[in-house]
Design brief:
It is a single chain. By secondary structure, the protein is an alpha/beta fold. It has one domain (about 5-110): Immunoglobulin-like (Sandwich). The protein has one helix spanning about 5-25; strands at about 30-35, 35-40, 40-45, 50-55, 65, 80-85, 90-95, 100-110. Strands 2-1-4-6 form a four-stranded mixed beta sheet, with no helix packed on it. A four-stranded mixed beta sheet has the order 3-8-7-5, with no helix packed on it. It is globular and about 55 Å long.
Length: about 120
């Protein structure tokens, strides 16, 4: 591959990564953990969304899928756990350390809206 062709290929690859990062960043939501609750306790997202769970409590918490698809480590104050939801459905989760803490993620198919 010639130097100009390599430079163009590299630039296109970089732009592709940049576009993917920008589109993914717009599809990120946060669930706060505080006062022994997940807030919001229910959230609706489209497939491909990343959910970031952030612990604001002084007490460790974790995030556990009721069906066993995921389980975070115990999160200390300020720590986070994230997961991308690729399939439509309802995911119920809880804190494995404090099972009374529950939440739900409703994942809908992505709508391909144009501009």
């Amino acid at each position: 591959m010639s130097k100009p062709a390599f430079a163009i290929a590299s630039a296109l690859a970089f732009v592709g990564v940049l576009v993917a990062s920008i589109s993914h960043a717009g599809n990120e939501r946060t669930i706060d953990i505080g006062d022994f609750v997940f807030a919001p306790s229910e959230i609706r997202v489209e497939t491909g969304a990343r959910i970031v769970f952030v612990n604001h409590d002084d007490t460790p918490h974790n995030v556990v899928d009721r069906n066993g698809a995921f389980r975070s480590k115990a999160l200390d104050t300020g720590e986070s756990f994230s997961i991308v939801f690729d399939k439509p459905g309802e995911i119920t989760y809880f804190c494995g350390l404090h099972p009374q803490m529950t939440g739900k993620v409703i994942v809908t198919p992505r709508s391909d809206r144009q501009g």
